[in-house]
Design a protein that fits this description.
single chain, two-stranded antiparallel ribbon, 4 strands, elongated
Length: about 140
C-alpha cells in the first residue's frame, strides 16, 4: 500500500513570474495600466500625480502585509471603519456570588406538656450562663 503525500505549505502561494505570486503580478499589472491611463488621459502634473498614486497603491497591494494580513484586507477593514465607525468601551464584569441554599429542618411540633413558660426560659438562661462560666 502506498502512502499519499500530504502538502506541508498550503498557505504559501506558488511563484509564477520571477518570484512573484499570481496575485502580486495581477496587482502590479493593474497598477501599471491605471498609471498609463492617468498619463495618457490627464496630461501634465495631475496625470503624473495620479499615476504615482496608482503605482504606490499597486505596490502596497502586492507586497505589504500588516499583522500578517494582506494590505487588501487591511484597506477594506479601514474603509468599512471610516464608513461605519464603532466605539468600544470596556466595562468590568460584576462578580456573581453563588449562594448555597441550606435546607432548614422543620421545627418539631410541641406537645402541651412542653410549653415554654417565662420561668422555664429563665432557668434555661441561668443554666447556660453557669456552664459558660465553668468552661472559662
Amino acid at each position: 500500500m502506498s502512502q499519499a503525500k500530504v502538502p506541508k505549505f498550503i498557505d504559501i502561494q506558488d511563484k509564477v513570474v520571477d518570484g512573484l505570486t499570481l496575485w502580486q503580478v495581477i496587482d502590479l499589472a493593474t497598477a501599471g495600466v491605471v498609471a498609463a491611463v492617468f498619463i495618457v488621459l490627464l496630461r501634465g502634473p495631475v496625470g503624473q500625480i495620479g499615476a504615482l498614486f496608482s503605482v504606490v497603491l499597486g505596490v502596497c497591494f502586492a507586497f505589504i502585509k500588516i499583522n500578517e494580513r494582506p494590505f487588501s484586507v487591511f484597506a477594506l477593514s479601514a474603509f468599512s471603519f471610516l464608513i461605519n465607525p464603532k466605539k468600544y468601551s470596556w466595562q468590568k464584569e460584576k462578580v456573581k456570588i453563588k449562594m448555597r441554599e441550606h435546607k432548614i429542618a422543620p421545627l418539631p411540633s410541641r406537645r402541651a406538656d412542653q410549653e415554654l413558660t417565662v420561668q422555664k426560659i429563665k432557668e434555661l438562661a441561668t443554666a447556660l450562663d453557669v456552664e459558660e462560666h465553668i468552661r472559662k
